[in-house]
Write a structure and sequence with these properties.
Largest sheet: 2 strands, antiparallel
Distance between the termini: 125 Å
Shape: flat
Number of helices: 5
Helix content: 55-70%
Structural class: mainly alpha
């Protein structure tokens, strides 16, 4: 009989060992779910507290403070819009100046604008006044930005020829006659 008891005890121990990892896994999943739910509840409460704080701050502000805050916001927006508009106008003016001065740029106008200091541009209302002179100074100080075309696309080859040759003359010159 003792043999039967040990077999039954061995089976019970094996069953307990197999069940233990599954129980641990279930417990871990349950603890993670609880932590996640707790975190969500805390985040929801924090959002509500922020909303309450903002509402209270607005209620405590006087009408003049609210108007001053709104005025500041509008002024900031106006400044950003003005800066973008001036950048666009300056880009157009530089493009016009490049054409008027007959300069061939080796870089896009946007890249050339990076070298022009915005403080150096003099504005007459919404029109920049000294773009041509700034562009000339820039090309003079950084000659690699503009190219000077001296010759043709073939690098000047063929400029020493006296005139058009016939096909017979070309063949004779190649043969050596």
């Amino acid at each position: 009989m003792p043999e039967e008891t040990t077999t039954t005890e061995a089976t019970d121990v094996t069953t307990q060992r197999e069940a233990a990892p599954a129980d641990d896994y279930a417990e871990l999943k349950e603890s993670i779910r609880k932590e996640r739910d707790a975190r969500r509840a805390i985040e929801k409460e924090a959002t509500e507290l922020r909303r309450f704080r903002d509402e209270r701050t607005k209620a405590e502000q006087s009408e003049t403070e609210r108007l001053a805050a709104r005025e500041k916001t509008v002024a900031d927006q106006e400044q950003r819009i003005t800066e973008r508009l001036r950048a666009s106008i300056l880009r157009d003016e530089v493009s016009s100046a490049v054409t008027a001065e007959k300069i061939t740029l080796n870089a896009p106008v946007g890249d050339v604008l990076r070298f022009i200091e915005s403080d150096a541009v003099e504005w007459d209302g919404e029109t920049p006044k000294n773009v041509r002179s700034l562009l000339r100074e820039l090309v003079k100080g950084r000659p690699y930005l503009a190219s000077r075309r001296t010759g043709s696309a073939d690098g000047g080859a063929g400029q020493d020829q006296a005139g058009p040759q016939s096909m017979n003359d070309l063949i004779r010159s190649r043969v050596g006659r």
